[in-house]
Each structure stands twice: as C-alpha cells, then as structure tokens.
Design goal:
It is a single chain. With 513 residues, the chain is α/β, with parallel strands linked by helices. The chain folds into three domains: 185 residues, Rossmann fold (3-Layer(aba) Sandwich), CATH 3.40.50; 187 residues, 3-Layer(aba) Sandwich (Rossmann fold); 96 residues, 2-Layer Sandwich (GMP Synthetase, Chain A, domain 3), CATH 3.30.300. 32% of the residues lie in helices and 24% in strands. The strands form three sheets. A nine-stranded mixed sheet has the order 2-1-3-4-9-8-7-5-6, with helices on both faces. Strands 12-11-10-13-14 form a five-stranded parallel sheet, with helices on both faces. Strands 15, 16, 17 and 18 form a four-stranded mixed sheet that branches. Helix 1 links the parallel strand 1 and strand 2. The longest helix has 23 residues. The protein is globular. The two termini are 38 Å apart. Bound molecules: xanthosine-5'-monophosphate.
C-alpha cells in the first residue's frame, strides 16, 4: 500500500459491524484502516486521512466508561461520519442531546431523506434503512441540520455542511439499508473528496515492487497450505523474487481427496515455484494413533507441523525472511480490542521464531478476504483455489470423531469428495460458504440387499456465514441431499446411514470438534 493512497480512518467503538464498514469503504475503491477509538490525536494527524468514520457500539453515551474519542478530532478540519453510536457520540460531544427511548427501533425501517444533503445526493426521498438502537438523537448540535427521519426517530441523519460532519442513526454498511452504499460513496467522494484510487491491479503491482525492494537478494521461506491466503501470499512473493522463494507444503495425510497432488501441480507446474512437498502422512498418523480427544489431536498436529518445518528449514540453511498469509481481520481482531466477540485463534501453520529468520513478510496484512480473492485472480491463480472454502489446519482429524485410522481417513475423503462434486453440480459451491462430511463414530443397524448391516454414520454439514464466527445451517434442496446420500451409501464401503446437521453456530460450532 503506497503512502500517497487516499485513506479513510474508521474508529471502532465496539460495534458488531465495524469490519463491515471497512469492507464497504474498500468496495468503493477507497483504502481505509480500522483502529481503536482510543487512537491518539497525534497518530490520527500523522495518518493524513481524508475522512473519519465513527462505528456503532453497544454502549449509551451517558454510561460511565462509554468509549469516546479525542475531542481534537473535530478541530482537524477532516470530514467525519458517525454511524449509530458514532452519530450519538458526535451529537453528545458537540452539544446536542441524546435520549433513551422506551422501545428499541430494530430492523428494516422506512426513512425519509432530504436529497439536497451531501449524503443523500442522487438517493431516493423514501427508502429502507436498517436500524438497531435504543438511544436516539433528540436534538442535533448547533450548526447541524436534520436530513432524514423515520416514524420513531426524529434525527435519522444530520449534517453540518460547513464543517462536513455527518451522522446517521441507521447502518449504511448493512445490506438491508437499500441505498447504503450510495450514502457511503457520497461521504467518501463528495464530502471527503476521494477519487477511488484503491484498485486491486495497482495493489498487486505496487506490492510486487515493494517486496522486490525489501527482499533484495535474500531468501524467503513460506509454509504453503494450499488455502487462499497462503497461496496468494506465496504467488505475490514468487512474482517479486522468483526462485529466491522456497515453499514448503506439508501433506499430513489429513487433506481432502487428491488435494496434495492438486496443490503440487498448480504451484510447481503453473507457477514454476521452488516447492518442497513433505509427505509426512505416516509421521502424523503414527503420532495420532489411539488419540480421540479433540484438543489432544489439535495439539499433536500443531506440534508435529512445527517439527516438520524445523527439519525442512535446517536442510535449507539460513533463512532470511518468513512469508505468512496474515490478513487484515487477523490484524484488527488482535488489534483494536473493542469488539465483544473474540475469535479463537487456531492457526496451525504459525511458526515459532526460533526457526531463525530475520524478518516477516506479510503481503496481505492490509487485505480483507474478498480482496485476497481478487488479488489471487489478478495473479492468475486458478478459480477453484481462489474460491476455496476454508479448511481447518488439522484437516480431517477434526472431522473424524474419536480415534483416527488410515481406513477412516480414506472413507471420509471419499464421502467428502462426493458431497463436493454434488454441490458443484448443483451450483451451490459459491453460495454455501463451508460444507463437508463428518465421520461420526456412531454405528447403527441397517439393511442392504437381504442382509443386516451394522455400519458407520456420515453427517453432512453445510453452512452460510459472513464471518465464520456465527453461521446458519444451509437450506439445501432435498434432491441434492438425496443424491449425496444415495451416492455415499452406494459408493463408500461401510457407510449405511447419512444425517444432515441442522444446528446453527451458536450453539454448535461449524466443525464437529
Ligand atoms: P468453528 O468450528 O470454530 O470453525 O465454528 C470456524 C472456522 O474455523 C475453521 N477451523 C479451523 N481452522 N484450524 C484452522 O485453521 C483449526 O483448528 C480450526 N478449527 C476450525 C473452521 O473450518 C471454520 O471455517
């Protein structure tokens, strides 16, 4: 990311949609950064931002300890847009009045907008917005004009044209706000004067150039999993320094059917990379023998991964840089510290520093997942890799309940391949965000031909989700479920029952272990 890029700052007040605001801004071709509301004025001034957005948040502005920002922000001469709590805080700090209502205004709401205002330029006079608030702005501060209303909200939007301060009680970043993207665009382009210089093609070119400068003649080591993030990171580095990059791909024997070969083919043949494939199936399966506790399995796999990398790096000699596929949500999740929900960190591929490298290379540090995918396509990575669903580091080990044997791995790989084939054939592979089979460790009685069977049960799991922190079970058409069921029973030995998991997350998790 070049220093001269137009930049927007999003201050996080703990709202559940803060990351979504950032994604929407990026979708409008404007680069933005998400930081804690406690970011100092000095740091904000140094950032040379074109505009600042205050996110929503769960508090009330009058609550003791409610998050605030530095008042000096309002004297910087930079346009500010407050969203929900952010708008209330702006009203409160600038001398308006915020009130608590008896009833929460929640859900899709009709809104009347003043189209002569900057924010609603070219928008409809009446539209639908997404509301989620109890407090409301009773009186806009001096200098502000009310620019939108709903039946229950006297100040659904306000603006101070002179100072370029704006507030919206609703959430423009949420899809349910019909013209939300237009309002955000109006803020970015008409209030902040952005031109939209954040393009994936220029990101790719600039990053390759920067990597070349940073790496020079040195050597880079990358743990390639075949997942989207590590693949895009590796290809970027490869385009920058070619064979100075060595990728290590560990096949722990718990991958999906044919996955190891596919990854190898793409990176060795299409990209002509220095790729070391470590076939460590036996090593992992031996250590996992007889282990059925899920945490224990994860621990063993994590430890073994590190050992394999240590062994490989010793063979390679001194390593200057380690390349990792860290992406922006990983950075902000451990960074802003405002959000209530904290994602458990289970990154198996993370390598310890004692592996002995000089520095880290994280070319995707500023990208969201959808931007990583765009960069991947820009770099010519095949679509099936770019659109790949997430796959846990410990692989099929957490989808085989109980102990793991090579036979069970094989059974699950076959069943999983059938589910994936049928999802692709039904065109569900992009709309359903994650789908897989689980070997449940349950045996039950069945009848096949004239005989009684006592065999294993496969569970099908398919979810839709925005962020993998919450998820809903996917409503798969019955005929697709039926085809998968019939095929697994007919084609995979020792399976005589198929069930479909209809639990959301929470209370369940996406994986079964
Ligand atoms: P859960 O099961 O916690 O999963 O709802 C959320 C997302 O994380 C993936 N997942 C993992 N990824 N190592 C990983 O790299 C793990 O140990 C692991 N466990 C779960 C899961 O596939 C889902 O996308």
């Amino acid at each position: 990311m070049k220093a001269e890029h137009e930049k927007i700052l999003i201050l996080d007040f703990g709202g559940q949609y803060s990351q979504l605001i950032a994604r929407r801004v990026r979708e409008c071709s404007v680069y933005c950064e998400l930081k804690s509301c406690r970011t100092t004025l000095q740091e904000i001034e140094k950032g040379a931002y074109r505009g600042i957005i205050f996110s929503g948040g769960p508090n009330s502005v009058y609550e003791e300890g409610a998050p605030r920002c530095d008042e000096g922000i309002f004297r910087l001469g930079i346009p500010v847009l407050g969203i929900c709590y952010g708008a209330q805080l702006m009203a409160h700090m600038l001398g308006g009045a915020v009130q608590s209502s008896e009833v929460k205004e929640y859900g899709k709401t009709e809104v009347d907008c003043m189209t002569s205002s900057v924010l609603f330029h070219n928008a409809s006079e009446q539209s639908i917005c997404w509301m989620s608030h109890t407090d409301y702005i009773e009186k806009a501060p001096y200098g502000f004009k009310v620019t939108a209303k709903t039946d229950h909200c006297p100040t659904a939007a306000m603006e101070d044209y002179q100072r370029r301060f704006f507030g919206v009680q609703f959430h423009p970043e949420v899809n349910h706000t019909k013209e939300g993207t237009l309002y955000l665009k109006n803020f970015l382009y008409n209030a902040c004067g952005c031109t939209g210089d954040w393009k994936m093609s220029s990101f790719v070119e600039d990053t390759i150039e920067e990597l070349r400068k940073k790496i020079g003649k040195k050597k880079v080591f990358c743990a390639l999993s075949g997942g989207v993030d590590s693949s895009v990171a590796a290809v970027l580095v490869h385009k920058a320094v070619g064979k100075q990059l060595t990728c290590v791909f560990v096949d722990h024997g718990l991958l999906r059917k044919d996955e190891g070969d596919t990854v190898e083919r793409v990176f060795r043949e299409q990209f002509d990379m220095n790729l070391i494939r470590v076939n460590a199936q036996e090593r992992f399966l031996t250590r996992l023998q007889g282990v059925s506790d899920p945490n224990e399995k994860r621990k063993i796999i994590g430890e073994e991964f590190i050992r394999v990398f240590e062994d490989e790096s010793k063979k390679l000699g001194a390593i200057d840089f380690l390349c990792q596929g860290t992406i922006y949500p990983d950075v902000v999740e451990s960074g802003t510290g405002e959000a209530a929900a904290i994602k458990p960190h289970h990154n198996v591929g993370a390598l310890p520093e004692n592996i002995g490298f000089e520095g880290l290379i994280e070319p995707l540090r500023y990208l969201f997942k959808d931007e990583v995918r765009k960069a991947g396509l820009e770099l010519g990575i095949p679509e099936f890799l770019v659109w790949r669903q997430p796959f846990p580091g410990p692989g099929l080990a957490v989808r085989i309940i109980g102990d793991i044997t090579p036979e069970k791995v094989h059974t699950l790989q076959e069943a999983d391949a059938i589910m994936r084939e049928e999802f692709a054939a039904a065109g569900l592979d992009k709309s359903v965000h994650q789908y897989f089979t689980v070997l449940t460790n349950v045996r039950s009685v069945g009848v096949m031909g004239d005989g009684r069977t006592y065999d294993h049960t496969i569970a099908l799991r398919a979810v839709t989700t925005d962020d993998f922190m919450t998820a809903d079970w996917a409503r798969i058409p019955y005929d697709v479920l039926e085809r998968i069921s019939v095929r697994i029973i007919n084609e995979v030995p020792h399976i005589n029952r198929i069930v479909y998991d209809i639990t959301s997350k929470p209370p369940a998790t996406i994986e079964w272990e």
